[in-house]
Design brief:
This protein is about 20% helix and about 25% strand. The protein has 7 helices and 20 strands. The chain folds into 3 domains: about 5-65, Uridine Diphospho-n-acetylenolpyruvylglucosamine Reductase, domain 2 (2-Layer Sandwich), CATH 3.30.43.10; about 70-225, Uridine Diphospho-n-acetylenolpyruvylglucosamine Reductase, domain 3 (2-Layer Sandwich), CATH 3.30.465.10; about 235-340, Alpha-Beta Complex (Uridine Diphospho-n-acetylenolpyruvylglucosamine Reductase, domain 1), CATH 3.90.78. By secondary structure, it is α+β, with helices and mostly antiparallel strands. The strands form 6 sheets. It has a 5-stranded antiparallel β-sheet with strand order 6-7-12-10-11, with no helix packed on it. It has a 4-stranded mixed β-sheet with strand order 1-2-5-3, with helices on one face. Strands 13-19-18-17 form a 4-stranded antiparallel β-sheet, covered by helices on one side. The structure holds flavin-adenine dinucleotide.
């Protein structure tokens, strides 16, 4: 393992903004990680593939780029139709999903083509097309950064919610997720095809003949048609979370905007797609300087070329203020912004 000084992070995150890290190390072994932690350099920041971060200034400490690899299968002693799958946290998420499908294991197909590492997936409980990581994850192994101890956690104890977990809240920057454990089904797997355009992409395939592989292909085709490729246009996926509201507010908005889209959550609570709000407010395809809302998915803020992290942050703050003024919703970033206090707290 080599530790580098003053490294430009532009190639290590998908917004591609130019910022410096005081120290940088790529870690593929746990022992190297422990050595690094003992060196005492602070602060530390764990980076996967950088597809959910926005740097607004140089990082004054040590960036640990996670490159831990390896995966394996073993029978689930409690269920003959299930297999326990273990994966190291530096593996690419989509490559891992495709590998499980090659083993004829269902469960992760709706999460195909989400960028990033497996180790970052629990941080915001990645989700797409009606499935979240929390639906399939059983356990995690984490390294407690200040003690160097390895701990095993049950998924149920990680506080998973909509694009959130305790790793984003009270456990922020305390643990490095080292391994994930899934229980995936090898037979009679229940497919989730009701969300988005999956059904229409599956065409005339009768439900009883559908496979997890076909659902994965459908999800990949839909995602490729809608989302910008970060290799071409810097972005970090959806910039904001979808806001929640109560029934009265939703009904009042419906009177004003009869085409308002909303989804029931639990008692009297509704989710309103942030993309709908941005589109309605005229942000789709709109740019300020070198930053824009994407032309086909306004929720994706893009670096159209050479923007700084602060320009992207300013743009996002302007968009959020406009949505607040027009609809009363306070948009919350889904992207992890550095330093953490950079996003203005609301009133
Ligand atoms: C085009 C595009 C589409 C996307 N679509 C989706 C989508 O459909 N659904 C969805 O949920 N997300 C989506 N995302 C967001 C992103 O793919 C996920 O959040 C992903 O899990 C980030 O992985 P990463 O390795 O790039 O994490 P990074 O961006 O490197 O890190 C994200 C956060 O996790 C922390 N972290 C990273 N690794 C670890 C670890 N091993 N232990 C502890 N903390 C860690 C980091 O410190 C940081 O706070 C999309 C992003 C892009 C660019």
């Amino acid at each position: 393992m080599r530790v580098f000084k003053d490294v430009n992070l532009a190639n290590y995150h998908t917004f591609g903004v130019s910022v410096q890290s005081a120290w940088f190390a790529e870690v593929s072994r746990l022992t190297d990680l422990l050595t690094l932690l003992r060196s005492g350099v602070h602060p530390t920041l764990v980076l996967g593939e950088g597809s959910n971060v926005l740097f607004t200034r140089d990082f004054p400490g040590l960036v640990i780029k996670n490159a831990m690899s390896g995966k394996s299968l073993m029978p689930d002693p409690t269920d003959p139709h299930r297999v326990v799958v273990e994966v190291a946290s530096g593996e690419n998420w989509h490559a891992f999903v495709r590998w499980t499908l090659e083993q004829n294991l269902g469960g992760l197909e709706n999460l195909s083509l989400i960028p990033g590492t497996t180790g970052a997936a629990p941080v915001q409980n990645i989700g797409a097309y009606g499935v979240e990581l929390a639906d399939v994850l059983q356990e995690l192994e984490v390294l407690e950064l200040h003690t160097g101890k390895l701990l095993r956690l049950k998924a149920a104890d990680c506080g998973f919610g909509y694009r959130t977990s305790r790793f984003k809240g009270e456990w922020k920057d305390q643990f490095l997720i080292t391994r994930l454990f899934f229980a995936l089904s090898s037979q009679q797997h229940q497919l989730h095809t009701a969300y988005g355009d999956i059904e229409s992409h599956l065409g005339g395939i009768p439900p009883e003949q559908r496979t997890p592989q076909q659902v994965s292909e459908a999800v990949m085709a839909i995602r490729r048609s809608k989302l910008p490729d970060p290799a071409q246009l810097g972005n970090a996926g959806s910039f904001f979370k979808n806001p929640e509201t109560d029934r009265d507010t939703r009904d009042a908005l419906l009177k004003k905007y009869p085409d308002l889209v909303s989804f029931p959550l639990r008692e009297n609570r509704f989710k309103v797609p942030a993309a709908w709000l941005l589109d309605k407010a005229g942000w789709k395809g709109k740019s300020i300087g070198r930053v824009a809302c994407h032309t086909s998915q306004p929720l994706v803020i893009v670096n159209t070329g050479g923007a700084s992290g602060l320009e992207i942050l300013d743009f996002a703050v302007t968009v959020a203020a406009d949505i607040r003024e027009k609809f009363g919703f306070r948009l919350e970033p889904e992207v992890n912004i550095f330093p953490p206090g950079a996003w203005p707290e609301g009133d």
